[in-house]
Amino acid sequence: MTAPITGPITGPITGPITGPAIAMLHTVPALAAPLAVLAAEVRPSARIMHFADESLLQDTIANDGPPPHVLRRLVSYAMYAKESGAGTLLVTCSSIGEAAERARPLAELPILRIDEPMAEEAVRAGDRIGVLATLATTLGPTTRLVRRAATRREAPREIVPHLCDGAFEALRGGDPARHDALVLEGFGRLARQVDVVVLAQASMAGIVTRADGGVPVLSSPRSGVAQLA
């Protein structure tokens, strides 16, 4: 298990610290810095704690979904976050999002999924919703999340999933340019079929400004962090 990363990551907090701290659980450590910047915008006086555990994602991929020990470890992180003064735990990995939901009744602080607001926004944005992912273990959970959001709103929606084969492997292998190229290629195909495209993983958000398919493109970081306000 990767050792937890704790403490503010983007420099000193300006002004007095007010209210409980915010904890974030990452399976991709590189997400900590950009999400800390977003958190500082919505809660400028909050202390931010980061927990990074790549094994949660690795074990989820190996088991085609979160195995029981991932749920147990997630609950442990929630307990540690509360003991460290956090009032909320934001889970930033969509692949373990459903495990985060199952952990909620077992935790003593709110556990938020970073992608829930994005799913709600997608349902409002169009009748045909494309879900783009680089991991099968994320594509399924995000598709189900959007479908549940549509059901809650009693809004019939068609969901079109698309997996960008090879993109995650390229990113893991140190080739972000190849990752982005494959994601943009998948986006181009999907955008022709739908009214709105959802990027299933926070790590895909970097392509938003380069995706030009004539349809809205939704990513989870900004709307997900906005929940912390």
Automatic annotation (TrEMBL):
It comes from the Bacteria. It holds the Pfam family Asp_Glu_race. GO terms for molecular function: amino-acid racemase activity. InterPro entries: Asp/Glu/hydantoin_racemase, Iso_Racemase_Enz_sf. Belongs to the HyuE racemase family. This is Asp/Glu/hydantoin racemase.
